[in-house]
From TrEMBL:
The protein's name in its UniProt record: Uncharacterized protein
Organism: Paraclostridium sordellii (Clostridium sordellii)
């Protein structure tokens, strides 16, 4: 997926930040 490629480009960003963003997205989706 392009998202994985984007993550590789943003390798400088901590992985936990990515997971946090995913969790926030899931919370919004569940609401």
């Amino acid at each position: 997926m392009d998202k994985w490629i984007y993550d590789l480009d943003k390798v400088n960003v901590p992985i936990w930040v990515k997971y946090k963003d995913e969790i926030l997205f899931l919370i919004v989706a569940l609401r």
